[in-house]
TrEMBL record:
<dbReference type="GO" id="GO:0005737">
    <property type="term" value="C:cytoplasm"/>
</dbReference>
<dbReference type="InterPro" id="IPR051721">
    <property type="entry name" value="Biopterin_syn/organic_redct"/>
</dbReference>
<keyword id="KW-0963">Cytoplasm</keyword>
<dbReference type="InterPro" id="IPR002347">
    <property type="entry name" value="SDR_fam"/>
</dbReference>
<dbReference type="InterPro" id="IPR036291">
    <property type="entry name" value="NAD(P)-bd_dom_sf"/>
</dbReference>
<dbReference type="GO" id="GO:0004757">
    <property type="term" value="F:sepiapterin reductase (NADP+) activity"/>
</dbReference>
<protein>
    <submittedName>
        <fullName>Uncharacterized protein</fullName>
    </submittedName>
</protein>
<keyword id="KW-0560">Oxidoreductase</keyword>
<dbReference type="Pfam" id="PF00106">
    <property type="entry name" value="adh_short"/>
</dbReference>
<dbReference type="GO" id="GO:0006729">
    <property type="term" value="P:tetrahydrobiopterin biosynthetic process"/>
</dbReference>
<keyword id="KW-0521">NADP</keyword>
Length: 262
């Protein structure tokens, strides 16, 4: 996998558990000793635990951790830029990758027709799922401006393209990310955008969706995936992303499902 022979910086948000953690593991298994993995979480303690495990399994990999959590007011690039500048200081890279993985599902007991009664709830989800991504993206593009090859990976979902009852909060915010990054890709041809859909993986997030949605049909749909054993594993999803970026044959702005990666 030629790109991983080059010096890469890879940023993964929400990397303490589940798919984010699997990404950390898969990239760590490929990166060379001049590369750098930057892992973020709301909990420094949890993410440092991941770092320790990675250092055990892959002693040559450089890992930095950073606590990035919910912003009480609208997130800005400056919330991220200082940390990235400090961590990447005096290092030079050939490839820069950011994986926007952190997410909040929003209130799955609520219908869109009711959102207007308390838009603060939507504002919170937009802060985490859309504005934080745009803010981090700006910081990433500015800090790694000189890096010749840049990838922005947005974790998307089926529910971004097909309306699913009770998924309004996450679908509205994730749809905004998709279009925002596609416009960015047109404006910045040196940045390649990938919308990566892990399909369905058994994670804390998936279990909460199943438990919290008030829509019986949606709950049944999730249950059938579990019963029919159709879920992907987080490590397969992660390995396939690492492979996809190395192949670099996808069109910028395209949506790729983890199960379609050969
Ligand atoms: N699981 C699936 O089947 C599936 C399907 C389609 C798309 N996806 C997408 O794939 C990505 C990973 O999925 P997942 O199921 O692993 O997600 P998840 O467990 O629900 O959450 C991912 C991470 O987001 C961070 N996070 C949660 N609440 C947050 C908040 N309020 N503010 C900031 N960060 C927060 C957490 O990391 P820390 O605790 O480290 O902060 C959490 O581990 C998500 O973008 C999801 O939408 C997943």
């Amino acid at each position: 996998m030629a790109i991983y022979e080059k010096n890469c910086v890879v940023i993964i948000t929400g990397a303490s558990v589940d798919i984010g953690r699997a990404f950390a593991n898969s990239f760590a298994s490929k990166l060379n000793s001049n590369s750098l993995l930057i892992l973020s979480s709301r909990s420094l303690e949890k993410i440092n635990h991941v770092k320790e495990q990675l250092k055990n399994d892959f002693p040559n990999v450089n890992v930095a951790t950073v606590e990035w959590g919910n912003k009480p007011i609208s997130p800005r690039a400056s919330d991220y830029k200082g940390d990235l500048q400090r961590i990447a200081k005096d290092k030079s890279f050939d490839v820069a990758i950011v994986v926007h993985n952190a997410v909040v599902a929003g209130d799955l007991s609520e219908h869109v027709s009711n959102f207007g009664n308390n838009l603060n709830k939507l504002q919170f989800v937009l802060n985490v799922n859309l504005f934080s991504i745009l803010a981090l993206t700006t910081a990433f593009v500015e800090v790694f401006e000189a890096v010749p090859k840049k990838f922005l990976v947005n974790m998307t979902a089926h529910s971004v393209h097909v309306p699913i009852p009770t998924f309004g909060y996450s679908s509205i915010s994730k749809a905004g990310v998709e279009m925002g990054l596609n416009v960015l890709a047109k404006e910045n041809p040196d940045v390649k955008v990938l919308h990566y859909d892990p399909v369905l993986v058994d994670t804390e997030g998936t279990r909460s969706l199943m438990k919290d949605t008030v829509n019986e049909t949606v709950r049944g749909f999730f249950k059938s995936f579990y019963e029919e054993n159709k879920l992907l594993t987080a490590s397969d999803v992660a390995d396939n992303l690492v492979k996809l970026l190395a192949q670099d044959s996808f069109e910028s702005g395209s949506v790729v499902e983890a199960s379609d990666v050969l």
